[in-house]
Write a structure and sequence with these properties.
Elements: E1 26-32, H1 41-51, E2 52-63, H2 87-101, H3 108-119, E3 123-135, H4 142-171, H5 176-192, E4 197-207
Helix pairs in contact: 1-3, 2-4, 2-5, 4-5
């Protein structure tokens, strides 16, 4: 592990409880894949706004706990044993349901851009999607296919590690035999990769105005 730079301080806080003691101290705030632990995402965005200095930038990255086909269409959730069933899709849905039960804001990826736009306290709102290959690499050209192949190789190990890390929490809600079958199926599906599948990482950014809008005063 590289040493922490002299101008960097590491601290642990729970943004669900607020970070008022740090208000107005940042020019840039980045969050990544935290929706499962956030109880009120719009409130979190409001708190981030107060953390930033005027002109400061927020960047948010979340995924929607779905997988997509080669045309970037959502893969439907089909029961085990039926045509179209995907172990990855089932695992992600189970993970999503577990997050909902724990109070997580699991739909944040879909709505965070609109929350920023409608709040009246942000400007220059933008965003993009990154499509990450999790099986059967494909692409419109050699360069894109090579990139997707590299992503697939990385995602194979990441998916297995993620599944293992989530097992203890999922075991509290799922029959052990069914859970073992689910994780084994996920590992086989990702490793074999016979059907193109993609995860969607949604990134949204916005800037705090140099002058606070009158409506927020």
């Amino acid at each position: 592990m590289r040493p922490t730079p002299d101008n960097c301080k590491l601290a642990v806080h729970d943004i669900n409880s607020g970070l008022a003691h740090l208000n107005g101290q940042f020019d840039y705030v980045h969050t990544r894949l935290i929706s499962s632990g956030i109880h009120d995402y719009p409130l979190m965005l409001s708190r981030i706004n107060t953390l930033l200095r005027p002109g400061g930038l927020v960047e948010l990255a979340e995924w929607d706990f779905r997988i997509y086909d080669a045309d970037h269409r959502p893969v439907p959730l089909a029961p085990r044993g039926e045509p179209g069933h995907s172990w990855v899709a089932e695992w992600l849905w189970s993970l999503r349901e577990m997050g909902v039960e724990r109070g997580g804001h699991m739909d944040a990826a879909t709505f965070m851009g609109e929350w920023l736009r409608s709040s009246g306290v942000w400007e220059d709102v933008g965003g993009n999607d990154t499509w990450i290959a999790i099986s059967a690499p494909t692409g419109d050209n050699e360069e894109e296919e090579a990139y997707n192949t590299r992503m697939w190789e990385r995602m194979k190990e990441d998916a297995k590690g993620f599944a293992a890390a989530a097992r203890p929490a999922m075991a509290r809600k799922m029959d052990p035999e069914k859970l073992d079958e689910l994780i084994s199926g996920l590992e086989r599906e990702v490793e074999k990769g016979t059907t193109p599948r993609f995860a969607r990482l949604q990134v949204v950014w916005a800037r705090k105005p140099m002058v606070t809008p009158a409506s927020s005063v």
